[in-house]
């Protein structure tokens, strides 16, 4: 990470309650044809339209123009045989674009899954792996994932684990009950749970008290006037401000990106909250990875 971005950037933007630059810890970048397929799926199966149909270079440029950087993105393998294609592409993108970090793709059905995982974790800008339990139809407590979790802990990396029941569509593979089984076996698993654990917000927040390497991100959780909005109040957010990361889910948004940022700002939380959530907490995880 660029060492010139530190406290100075927060201080310059302090009057607006946000750092002068912010870290987005939950963006998505895919090869163009994957993005096309994802956007079509949103429209045809979820009956919603993605507002920002921007391919990877355009997405990065859009965020950078709005004061975002570093950017942490992920992609996921929806079926066997896709992870290697995505990860070869990830390496090329990370070499092409500076100050970009990645949660790489993984699928346990791949014959070379663990060999591939070990190899790609050697890249300094790979922070870990993304598991999208709904899309991959994969339980987080599937025993085939246990060697991956062990590798992640051994290599001091992380897993971005979509294991909540929201925001748009759940499945039999997700929910806090499944995730608790993982943490019972791997209590020190370094994991990020997106969407604040929604829709089981309170249950996932309680896990933070017992699992110090667990973090939540804000993506899709602070959109006004939707049924999947975080609803546990400011005191709760202040209590866990050391464990929350700002994330947008950009560009796969069905609402304007700025809505969540403005909603969070209008909550009038402490300067410490905004500094930690939009900058400090992300910096710490990037440096640790």
Sheet with most strands: strand arrangement? 1-2-3-4-5-6-7-8
**Biggest sheet overview:** 8 strands, parallel
CATH-defined topology: TIM Barrel
What is the CATH H-level superfamily? Metal-dependent hydrolases
Structural class: alpha/beta
Number of beta-strand segments:
8
Work out the strand percent.
5-15%
User: Low-confidence stretches at least 5 residues in length (pLDDT < 50)?
Assistant: 1-15
Helix content: 40-55%
Oligomer: single chain
Textual characterization of the structure:
The chain has 289 residues and is an alpha/beta fold. It has one domain: Metal-dependent hydrolases (TIM Barrel). 41% of the residues lie in helices and 14% in strands. It is built from twelve helices and eight strands. The protein has an eight-stranded parallel β-sheet, with helices on both faces. The longest helix is centred in the last third of the chain and has 18 residues. The protein starts with 6 loop residues before the first helix and ends with a helix. The N terminus is likely disordered.
Question: Any descriptors?
Answer:
14% strand, single chain, alpha/beta, 289 residues, globular, TIM Barrel, disordered N terminus, 8-stranded parallel sheet
SSE layout:
Elements lengths: L6 H6 L9 E7 L3 H14 L10 H10 L2 E7 L8 H14 L3 E6 L7 H8 L5 E7 H4 L9 H9 L3 E5 L13 H10 L5 E3 L7 H10 L3 E4 L16 H6 L4 E2 L11 H10 L4 H18 L1
Parallel strand pairs: 1-2, 2-3, 3-4, 4-5, 5-6, 6-7, 7-8
